[in-house]
Amino acid sequence: MILFYVRHGEPTYHPDELTPVGLRQAEAVGRRLARYGLNKIFSSTANRALQTAQPAAELTHREIVKLDWANEGHAWTEMAVEDDRNPGHKHWCFSIPSIRRKLSSPEVLSLGDRWYEAPGFPPNRFKDAVERVNRELDAWIESLGYKHDRENKYYVPVSPNDDRVAIFAHQGFGNLFFSSLFDIPYPLWATRFDQNYTGLSAIWFEESAGVVIPKMIQFSGDGHLYASDLPTEFNKKRDLCF
Asked: 70 partner at 20 to 30 Å CA-CA among 4, 8, 45, 85?
């Protein structure tokens, strides 16, 4: 199986919809995915993700299956904390400099999967988020044919296949998703990886010796933007064009 994770296109957030550029980005990534086809398409229930998935669904003649647990609103409620730079306002924990430093500290990293037990974090629901996404992701991946053995940090192929599966979701939720999928503690993932609008990640579930250890064979690729003559700047940052 190849699992594609696609972040939504450029949004307005309020209201929850894609900008004109975001709609063009969605069309571009839809054409890219349709080139070799998709067997299944899933999406967060957020409108910006559904709009991003629509072109791929139309081109591949597949139904979009909605996953409410992938909606970023849930992750925001759990992972956003008060910003010490602006009291009374919340931001993603990984975007606040003081929290980023703490997430990278030996004290936090030494706790591994129980990193959220480290003292000194602002009031939060980090544990709730990790346990929720672990539970929901494991059930979803098993429905696709692969059972997650968290103790040994691999997957058992209960119904191995060559399906091409896409999920359209978000950045903040994506940090929880990838951390859970790859058995990489959240602090390491969230402080070191980021995704562009319609960034396309490809994960290969290759079986070897009876188990599967997923491989990221592409992360947040933007080749579809380049091919469609769309801006390749990183998340609207014009000084980060490549």
From this structure: 85
Closest CA to 18 of 57, 60, 46: 46
CATH of region 2-72+101-106+127-241: 3.40.50.1240
Give the residue among 46, 6, 4, 3 at the shortest CA–CA distance from 26: 6
Coil vs helix vs strand at 5: strand
Give tens-digit pLDDT for 89-122: 999 999 999 999 999 999 999 999 999 999 999 9
Amino acid 126 reads F
pLDDT digits (tens, 9 = 90+) for 62-76: 999 999 999 999 999
| Structure token digits, residue 201 | 């990640």
Q: Which amino acid is at 225?
A: L
User: Model's pTM, two decimal places?
Assistant: 0.97
**Domain boundaries in the chain?**
2-72+101-106+127-241
